[in-house]
TrEMBL record:
The lineage of its organism: Bacteria, Pseudomonadati, Pseudomonadota, Betaproteobacteria, Burkholderiales. GO terms for molecular function: inorganic triphosphate phosphatase activity; metal ion binding. PANTHER family: INORGANIC TRIPHOSPHATASE. This is Inorganic triphosphatase YgiF, contains CYTH and CHAD domains. Residues 224-506 form the CHAD domain.
Length: 512
């Protein structure tokens, strides 16, 4: 199992890494420099890629080494995946030699069993890099390999792309040490999380691959588990979905990735708020999570306005509504905000945040400042904590939502936030309660929250249109028409919201 943290470094900055205090004091022996040429093979229809595998033959001088890698997990730049290597005598892969290394039951056996695979393989792209590598020996015995690659990936017929990467590979020890070293390096070198392997970059030159938006994975808590175990499972689940959408935000065009990453950050912040009485998080985490969520939020709000909202507003409008100017202006702003969101997710600041947070979860960082009494509270049953929390949050929502359909925008916004917190909490704890009761409660709550969310989108869109017409007078006519359209839809929603609230207010929160 390969465990490797991949980071990007600005061109020309790699030399700073070996001289950084965090690295220089750990180098065991001398750093070696070598030129590596790796040729990646696949079938014309990209059979290996479609099955989550990559296959290369690397040339180092006269030596040849073939490597088969399978898809694995990626967490904050940490790639964990199965890897199989063997020497080869020529420049093409030797699948029979690889098969002797692969254990029974591995997915790799099924992949390589494809009929006539060896004959169908052809070189698709290659990487040429100068690698400077060194072995790092940590005081606790952990051994890492640090490799800095400068070069390019080249399609066999076509374009190329630069490579300026830093790889920290775990030889022995715990993965947390990779993150600890990366954080230490960030003090001296502007590193960023690398979301792509070299194979990803090569295939990206050949075919336009879109990263699909990642939604929440089912979460199952242990009914006999502790509060601490429950928190760690919930926070890890939220964090996994954040990571799952980073790549789609940075490299994709689908607005859904921005939306899903924003939602997952909201869920993560909600989890921190939920457990704050027993597991207080450092204040910096909420500030930084709020920052990155805000960057994504601006992109999402303008993309929704420029897309579905204005399309609905002007689909049935008369020609004199003058929608062209406002639609184009909104799209231009949406594009700029998307670029800003990409830059934020691909920044040193975000890299530091996500590595620190991952370490805090994995190492139970909250324990360092807890008293014995507070630590004792973490051992209490998660079921009791969940029941008390849902009951309290349900009661708060009933109070904030009283007379919901008649509330002004600010009061309705506070009710929407309360509804969101209740829904997230219920989804976090759903596996602890009777399934039918939870399903009905979430269904009714979701309908209410969806309506509140839509009404909030109307308010946000109206504010954006108002600011747009002030900044660009040529959009005033179209923006005014769109605001009127949204106001009429909101007014028409009065009775529906009233009915949804009445339906929800009859319920009681799920209890253990």
């Amino acid at each position: 199992m390969e465990k490797e943290l991949k980071l990007q470094v600005t061109a020309g900055k790699a030399s700073q890494i070996m001289h950084a205090p965090a690295v220089s004091r750990l180098i065991n022996g001398c750093a070696d420099s070598s030129d590596l040429v790796s040729t990646y093979f696949d079938t014309p229809e990209m059979y290996l890629r479609k099955n989550g595998a990559s296959l290369r033959v690397r040339a180092v001088g006269e030596q040849r080494l073939q490597t088969l890698k399978l898809e694995g997990s990626i967490t904050a730049g940490l790639f964990e995946r199965d890897e199989f290597e063997s020497p080869v005598t020529g420049d093409r892969p030797d699948l029979d030699a690889l098969l002797t290394l692969i254990p029974k039951g591995s997915k790799a056996i099924d992949i390589l069993a494809e009929p006539n695979l060896a004959e169908r393989l052809e070189p698709l792209f290659l990487t040429r890099v100068n690698r400077c590598a060194a072995i790092l020996q940590l005081p606790d015995g952990t051994e890492l390999e640090l490799a800095m690659d400068d070069g390019a990936v080249e399609a066999t017929a076509g374009p190329s792309a630069p490579i300026h990467g830093v790889e920290l590979e775990l030889k022995n020890g715990e993965p947390e040490q990779l993150y600890n070293l990366a954080l230490a390096l960030l003090h001296d070198v502007p590193l960023r999380i690398d979301y792509l392997s070299k194979a990803d970059r090569g295939y990206g030159l050949i075919v336009q691959e879109q990263s699909a938006a990642v939604k929440a994975e089912p979460l199952k808590l242990k009914k006999r588990g502790s509060v601490e175990e429950g928190f760690q499972a919930i926070a890890s689940n939220c964090l996994a979905q954040v990571h799952g959408n980073e790549r789609g935000v940075v490299f994709g065009q689908d607005p859904s990735s921005v939306h899903q990453m924003r939602v997952r950050l909201r869920r993560l912040r909600s989890a921190l708020d939920l457990f704050a009485p027993v597991i207080p998080a450092p204040a910096d985490f909420d500030n930084e999570l709020r920052w990155i969520a805000g960057e994504l939020g601006k992109a999402r709000d303008w993309e929704v306005l420029a897309g579905s909202t204005l399309k609905k507003a002007f689909d049935s409008a008369a020609d004199d509504a003058d929608g062209t100017a406002v639609q184009q202006a909104a799209q231009n702003i949406a594009t700029e905000n998307r670029k800003a969101a990409v830059a934020a997710v691909n920044s040193v600041r975000y890299t530091r945040l996500i590595i620190q947070f991952t370490l805090w979860i994995d190492q139970k960082g909250w324990r360092k400042s807890q008293s014995k009494q507070a630590l004792k509270a973490l051992e209490k049953p998660i079921t009791s904590f969940a029941s008390e929390t849902l009951k309290r949050r349900h009661k708060k929502l009933l109070k904030r939502g009283h007379g919901l359909a008649e509330l002004d925008d600010d009061a309705r916004h506070r009710a929407r936030i309360a509804a969101k917190k209740v829904r997230y909490a219920t989804e976090f704890f759903s596996s602890l309660f009777e399934r039918r009761a939870v399903k009905h409660y979430i269904s009714v709550l979701s309908d209410l929250q969806d309506d509140l969310g839509w009404r909030n989108d109307v308010v946000v869109a109206s504010d954006l249109l108002s600011s747009l017409s002030e900044a660009k007078p040529e959009t005033a006519v179209g923006a005014g028409f769109a605001r009127g359209f949204l106001a009429s839809r909101a007014a028409a929603d009065h009775d529906a919201m009233k009915a949804l609230w009445k339906r929800f207010s009859r319920l009681t929160a799920p209890q253990h």
